[in-house]
Write a structure and sequence with these properties.
This protein is an alpha+beta fold. It has helices spanning 72-80, 83-98, 150-163, 199-206, 224-228, 234-247, 281-291, 315-343, and strands at residues 2-4, 111-120, 126-135, 165-167, 178-180, 185-187, 192-193, 196-197, 271-273. The strands form 3 sheets. The protein has a 5-stranded antiparallel beta sheet, sandwiched between helices. It has a two-stranded antiparallel ribbon with strand order 4-5. It has a two-stranded antiparallel sheet with strand order 7-8. A hairpin with a 2-residue loop joins strand 7 and strand 8. Helix 1 crosses helix 6 (234-247) and helix 2 (83-98) crosses helix 3 (150-163). It is globular and about 70 Å long.
């Protein structure tokens, strides 16, 4: 299994933790903000690092020490480009070449399967956890070829976690950026437990820390004012503003950044797996129906006749909706006033 993070773009504050995770998780490790040995300040007069060990509940955890130095453009574009897809392709190529197999015939000898989860860190960067497995050509029921050792797979993962690069489209406002994984990659080998893999260990690893995030919002935003009124930190709000601005540049129109502003540019699923990693979702639903005793649906009743009853709120709900609409209008007006005062 592997874990990797984006490259850092500026020092961030970190927290204290009774059981600090590996160093690839800088936003929650129990250490200071990695200040430079020579100290000093940036061009904006702020220190190059944070010497304080913050409590895990401190809202400063994960925030840039200097927001003006932080590469918000690179952060958003890193989210928007699918490095994982390129990474999987390159790992397959590495395995084929190291085993002396023509790349186009790799599928005849082995199959690379994975389960992956994207976890937002408190610094609002996506941190990837993945379980990667090498099977025989027929999938998980087929033993891997003799050359498909854990050591060979580990070396392939390490190699391409450091070498995968995606170049952005050229924009006159931004130029071209080369995006890659960060240097903090942690790879561990999962051992079999009894007759099968240790599924509990896999689940604990893949879902670790997924409930503490620095993501944007759980709903889409449609205007600049939506961003101004979103209940997020200043750091996340700046990322959302950056995403919205970049979405208006012709070079980045294909990335649909306006649509994905609420996820800070990230467009992938939080949880994904390759087709042959495990059972399908359809099979799981069928198994669930069988467990509940719904194996025979011959008594099911289908009513295809619909008639219009009405629409709108009940009288009580209408009062609540009107109150919510008034609050939203006042919040938006306040945001406009503050922005106008700032511009003046």
């Amino acid at each position: 299994m592997a874990r990797t993070s984006p490259p850092p773009s500026a020092p961030v504050r970190v927290s204290s933790s009774p059981s600090p995770p590996p160093p690839s998780d800088p936003s929650t490790a129990g250490e200071t903000g990695r200040p430079r040995r020579d100290g000093g300040t940036c061009e904006h007069g702020r220190p190059h690092g944070c010497h304080t060990v913050h409590a895990s509940t401190d809202p400063l955890v994960g925030q840039p020490v200097c927001p003006d130095c932080y590469d918000y453009t690179g952060h958003v574009l890193w989210h928007a480009h699918k490095l994982w897809d390129r990474f999987v392709i390159d790992v397959r190529r590495r395995l084929a070449s190291s085993a002396g197999i023509v790349q186009s015939r790799f599928a005849r000898h082995a199959r690379l399967s994975f389960a992956r989860i994207a976890e937002y860190q408190k610094g609002a960067t996506v941190h990837v956890h993945a379980v990667i497995r090498l099977d025989g050509p027929d999938g998980p029921t087929d033993d891997p070829p003799p050359w498909g050792t854990p050591d060979r797979l580990t070396r392939a993962v390490y190699a391409f976690a450091q070498r995968v690069t995606v170049r952005t489209s050229c924009s006159p406002a931004v130029g071209e950026l080369d995006l890659s994984w960060g240097t903090q990659t942690d790879v561990r080998v999962l051992r079999a437990d009894g007759d099968g893999p240790d599924d509990d260990a896999v689940a604990a690893y893949v879902t670790k820390g997924s409930n503490e995030t620095g993501a944007g919002t759980d709903h889409k935003v449609t205007t600049w004012d939506d961003i101004d009124t979103a209940p997020v930190s200043r750091h996340v709000r700046t990322l959302m503003h950056t995403c919205w601005r970049l979405g208006g540049l012709p070079a980045y129109v294909p990335l649909r950044l306006h649509t994905w502003t609420h996820t800070l540019g990230y467009q992938g699923h939080i949880l994904t797996k390759s087709r042959a990693y495990s059972t399908t979702y359809a099979a799981l639903r069928a198994e669930g129906a069988h467990h509940l005793g719904h194996t025979d649906t011959s008594d099911a009743i289908t009513d295809a006749h619909w008639r219009y009853i009405g629409s709108g709120h009940t009288p009580d709900a209408a009062l609540i909706a009107a109150g919510v609409a008034t609050d939203l209008a006042e919040n938006q007006e306040e945001a406009r006033s503050q922005r106008g005062a700032h511009d003046r």
